[in-house]
Amino acid sequence: MKKIFATGLSIVLSLPLWAQGGTNSPYSQFGLGILARQSAGFNRGMNGLAYGFHENDKVNFQNPASYSAIDSLTFIFDAGVSLQITNFEEKGHRKNARNSSIEYAVAAFRAFKHLGVSFGFLPYSNVGYNFQNTENINAFPNPSSQSATFSNTFSGSGGLHQVYLGIGWEPIRNLSIGANASYLWGELNRDVVNSYSDKNISTLSKSYITSVASYKVDLGLQYTQKINRKNQVTLGLIYSLGNKLNANPECHVISRNSQTLISDTTSYVIHKALELPQTFGGGVTWNYSNQLKLGFDYQIQKWAKIAMPQFTVVNGVADYKLVGGQFNDRQLFTLGGEFTKGDRHRSFLGRMHYRAGISYATPYLKIEGQDGPREISASVGVGIPIMNNYNNRGLLNISCEWFNRQANNFIKENVFRINIGLTFNERWFAKFKVE
Questions:
Q1: Among 211, 209, 308, which residue's Cα sits nearest to residue 254?
Q2: How far is it, in rounded angstroms, from Cα 107 to Cα 59?
Q3: Which of 3, 56, 195, 236 has its CA 20 to 30 A from that of 74?
Q4: Strand ranges, E, within 34-114
Q5: Which UniProt keywords apply (predicted)?
Q6: Cis (ω within 30 of 0) for the bond into 249?
Q7: How far apart are CA 205 and CA 63, in angstroms?
Q8: Helix (H, G, I), strand (E, B) or coil at 15
Q9: What is the phi/psi pair of residue 393, to 5°?
Q10: Residues 6+ away with beta carbon under 8 Å from 314
Q11: pTM (2 decimals)?
C-alpha cells in the first residue's frame, strides 16, 4: 500500500512539469488550443468510448453516473501517460515532432450504498507550437535599395487543466445519475514576431496572454436494461454546462527599433471574455456475459456561437475585441468494443482485455473563413492483469492510437501515440476473518 501512495504522490507532484507538453500542433494557436482526449486507460483502447460503460472496477469519469457502480470493497487509483510522434506535411515538406505528457490521475471509491465518489486531474487543452516563414520584399522606406527579407515567427505554450470532484448515485434500480464539479485553470501564451533584415525597419511583435481560473460542471445519466441472463444494454447521456470563464485576455503590441533598441508598447485588454461550449452526448453499450462489450457514442460541442479575442486593424485603427464566426459546432462519432474471456480467477490469458475503436470528428475551427481540419482516429489496446498474491485486480492498460488531422490547403498531421495506464484496485474495505 505504501508503494501505491508513493507512486500516486510522485505523479501528482510532477503534474506541473508535464502538463504543458502535449502538442506541437500549429492548430493549437487557435481557440483554447488542441482539445485533450479526456479518457482513461481502458477507454483509450476503444478510442474514447465511454458513455454507456457502467463498470465496478474502473473510473469512467466521462460519465459521472458510472461512479454508482464502484465496488463497495475497493479503492481505485488510475493514472496514465502518453508518448507521441507527430508527422507534419505541407506542400511536400515533412517534419516530425515528439511529445510526452501525463494524461490523467484519478481515483474512486464507494462512500455509501449506491453512491460512489471520484476525484482527479485531467488536461482540458494544450498549446504548443513554434514555426517561422521568411519571404523577400522591397525594402521600406527606401524602395530603391536592394531586396530585403521579412520573417514571421509564431510561437505558443500553455494550456488549460482541471481537477474535479464527482459523485454518482443510483436512486432507482438500474438508473444512475451523477455530476462532476471541476476547477479549471491555466495560461495561454501566444506570440507573433515580424522582423526584417533591413535594420532601418522596426521589429513588430504581438504578445497574447490569457490566464484562466474558473469552473466546469458535467452531468451524467445511465440506465441499464437486462434483456436476458447473458445480455444487457446500457444507455448513457451526458451534458456539460456552457459557462463564461471571465478571463481577461491581454494583447501587447511592441514596436522595437532595431538600431536604437528602443521599444514602444501599446497594451489592450478584454474584460470577462472566453467561454466553454455546451456539450451534449449520448451512447449505448451492449454487454454479453461481461465478456464482449460493444458500443457507440455521439457528442456535439456548441462552439459556433462563441466569440474569441482577435487583434484587427481597420483603416489604420488598431483594435482588440471579441470576434465571432471562428468556430463550427464540433461533432464526434465513436465506435468501439472490448473482449475478455472473463476467467478472472484462474489464468493470466483468461483475464486479458482486448480493445479496439474508431472515431470521426467534424471540423470545429474556422481558419481564414474556411473549415479547419477534420479528424479521423483509430486505436487498439490491451488490458494486462497484474498478477500478485493479494487480489489480482490491477490492470496495466496499453493502447496505440493514430490520428489524422487534415483540411484543404492547410497542414496535414499524422499523430501516432502510445498510452500507458495503471489501474490499482485495492481491497481497502474488506473484512478479514482470522481463525
A1: 209
A2: 7
A3: 236
A4: 34-35, 75-90, 93-112
A5: Signal
A6: no
A7: 44
A8: helix
A9: -115, -5
A10: none
A11: 0.87
